Amino acid sequence: MEKIKTIVASVSLVMVGLLWLLTSPAEAATIRLTCSAKDTIGNAIKKLKPGDTLLVTGSCNEHVEIPAEVARITLDGQDKATINGPDATKDTMTIRGRAILMKGFTITGGGNAIQVEVGGDAVIDGNTVNNAGRFGIGVNRMAFAVIVNNTIRNNTSQGIAVAGGAFAFIGFRTGIDKTTSPNTIENNGDHGITVARSSSARIVGNMIRNNKRNAVNVSRASQADISNNTIEGNGGDGINVTQNSSVSLGIGTGTGIFDLPNSTASPNGGVGTRCALNSSVDGRLGSLNGNSATKDFDPSCTESLQAVVLGKQP
């Protein structure tokens, strides 16, 4: 009887051990990929598990999709990899997964170079995003993105477009940051940044210059906090807020990254700040300016600007 008990106990311990091995999380893996016709990012993503990192080199001619069931992976181009979308009707990179980190790539071609959508969330860090058929980076349909340290240039339409109930941090990582992680958004064929269709963005510390239309365009019942950016040389206005939207241009007289107003060295083509169609502006104008005027607010605009001498920062 004692022998039977010992055997049962031993089997139980083995079963517990096997169960622990089966249920314990696997260690995060680092996988290396050199792109080729057979070895693609899309195929590699299918094998990644939460916590894994994919290190990519080479020229990747493909359209990459990260589906909603994929979570907590890192795609790292190591400043060596290019993803080029050959079909102008498809986005080069589509992200619907959760907690996706994408860094160190040059991303070109396609419709939108990077599209975060349908509830996906991503950190897009340290990429060069250019020559897309539409937007450089799109955040759409209830998605969220942190967009930092990127160069976003020479895209046919907007540099960054936040729309469809989406939300983005642009130029910083968290609400307690003391320093910015700036993007350069330049030479795009439409607005530098657009926030539209009941969306929201916090735009902090970026260089937004030489875009064909407005540097930042906020419209269609949307809201943006816009502080501490350099906004200059854009073909239209520095900031345009319209159609029941609102913007905050810094706060109080503080000197933190979320407090400081925006600045202009080379005037924008229109006005510094324009407000129309039942919209509102508060905060500080700073030195934000345009060739036509510092500001142009129509009678329907609610203005709550603080009494700070234009061009002066505390």
Topology (elements, then pairings):
Layout: H1 2-23, E1 30-34, H2 41-45, E2 53-61, E3 64-66, E4 74-85, E5 93-95, E6 100-109, E7 114-117, E8 121-125, E9 128-130, E10 137-140, E11 144-148, E12 151-153, E13 160-163, E14 167-170, E15 184-186, E16 193-195, E17 200-204, E18 207-209, E19 216-218, E20 223-227, E21 230-232, E22 239-241, E23 246-249, E24 271-275, E25 280-283, E26 293-297, E27 302-305
Parallel strand pairs: 1-2, 2-4, 3-5, 4-6, 5-7, 6-8, 6-9, 7-10, 8-11, 9-12, 10-13, 11-14, 12-15, 13-16, 14-17, 15-18, 16-19, 17-20, 18-21, 19-22, 20-23, 22-24, 23-25, 24-26, 25-27
Written overview of the protein:
By secondary structure, the chain is mainly beta. The chain has a single domain (48-305), classed as Pectate Lyase C-like, CATH 2.160.20.10. The chain is 9% helix and 39% strand. It has 2 helices and 27 strands. The strands form 2 sheets. The protein has a 17-stranded parallel sheet that branches. Strands 3-5-7-10-13-16-19-22-24-26 form a 10-stranded parallel sheet. Helix 2 links the parallel strand 1 (30-34) and strand 2 (53-61). It is elongated. It starts with a helix and ends in a 9-residue tail after the last strand. Residues 1-24 and 308-314 have low confidence and may be disordered.
